[in-house]
Design a protein that fits this description.
Structural class: alpha/beta
Distance between the termini: 33 Å
CATH architecture of the largest domain: 3-Layer(aba) Sandwich
Number of domains: 2
Strand content: 15-25%
Radius of gyration: 19 Å
Mean pLDDT: 79
Helix content: 10-25%
Low-confidence stretches: 11-39, 45-57, 306-337
Number of helices: 7
CATH class of the largest domain: Alpha Beta
Oligomer: single chain
């Protein structure tokens, strides 16, 4: 059965709006306007691209970038720097304030503090004091961000096979898909002294370019694509293979080191974890929802961000969110290494 695309979803919403016009007006193309909006959303526009959605070319793509390692992590910085080399790509970063590895698709049910921050290389971003899935909720439901794609990562540690449901990286991607926006979760393998984010960068850029036209046109399938890229102690990545997602198996095997010097044959029928451990980057489609529904955590009314936190991040301006929307994500459960 063909999966819905963004165009399909928008067409459905428009039809519903037309049918309901006698009773009430409808919002934008996606069917709803955010309850309220926080401070202006920081974006980074690549050379040659326009700065507003209305002026972008037919093949221009707007991307929300988030992660589960927090806005100060090396992986998200490497990803944003790489995306900045593409023409006609507009990038907005909304990421967790702190490390949130292993949080899966957990989310909060109330307003959260949002801070103006910068990534390690100086790119502007919003930091949300919540889970990875919360960053997507804040970006899309409260800031009103309308994007063609969400990329979550680059994560420090693989997220594949039987451990995807505890991955905050995948959890954020699932929160995007739940809102009708295709998502790519990207993770760098563990097992070397340093995570080799540069191994993942060219594969991410290639994926974006291959899917650019469909994404810009709203014709891309609304699904979670999950890319895991080995870190190599010796040898180099042997290639990339598209394989089915394998939620069964031994989690400890999914967390093992990768052997990029392996000569074991790998093809599209090779189990996901086996292909990855033998030096191949794996691209899979993971289910939109985890096996067990993700927890929704109520925000303690006594700690709701009615005022900026007393202690601000160095060099940042803390903006309390104006939104009071209780829209939440209940679909998802990163990484055991995450």
């Amino acid at each position: 059965m063909r999966r819905p695309t963004r165009t399909d979803l928008r067409t459905t919403v428009v039809a519903l709006c037309v049918g309901a016009m006698a009773l009430a007006g409808c919002g934008g193309d996606d069917g709803a306007s955010p309850a309220s909006t926080t401070a202006s959303t920081p974006t980074t526009t690549a050379p040659g691209s326009a700065t507003s959605g209305g002026d972008r070319g037919d093949a221009a793509v707007s991307i929300l970038v988030t992660n589960d390692d927090g806005y100060a992590a090396d992986g998200i910085d490497a990803l944003v720097n790489a995306l900045g080399t593409l023409e006609d790509v507009e990038v907005t970063v909304v990421a967790p304030l702190e490390q949130q590895s292993g949080s899966g698709g957990r989310s909060h049910s109330g307003p959260l503090a949002v801070s103006d921050v910068t990534l390690k290389s100086g790119h502007p971003a919003k930091a949300v004091d919540g889970f990875p899935a919360d960053t997507v909720r804040v970006a899309m439901d409260e800031m009103g961000l309308d994007v063609d794609l969400t990329i979550s990562g680059i994560n420090a540690g693989q997220n594949l096979g039987p451990i995807v449901d505890v991955s905050g990286t995948v959890g954020a991607a699932r929160a995007s898909v739940a809102r009708g926006v295709p998502a790519l979760a990207v993770s760098s393998g563990s097992g070397t002294p340093e995570f080799q984010y540069d191994n993942a960068v060219p594969l991410v850029l290639e994926w974006v370019e291959e899917n650019r036209s469909a994404l810009a046109a709203g014709d891309a399938e609304v699904e979670v694509a999950n890319l895991n890229v080995p870190s190599c102690d010796s040898g180099e990545i042997r290639g990339m293979v598209e394989v089915p997602s394998d939620a069964k198996g031994d989690p400890s095997q999914a967390l093992a080191d990768q052997d990029c010097a392996s000569t074991q044959p790998v093809n599209g029928d090779t189990p996901e974890v086996q292909a990855f451990l033998n030096g191949y980057a794996t691209l899979t489609e993971v289910p939109d929802e985890p096996l067990t529904p993700a927890e929704v955590v109520p925000v303690d009314p006594s700690t709701e961000p009615t005022e900026p936190p007393a202690t601000e991040l160095p060099g940042t301006t803390v903006a309390p969110p104006e939104a009071t929307s209780s829209t939440t994500m209940t679909s998802t459960t990163e990484k055991a290494t995450d």
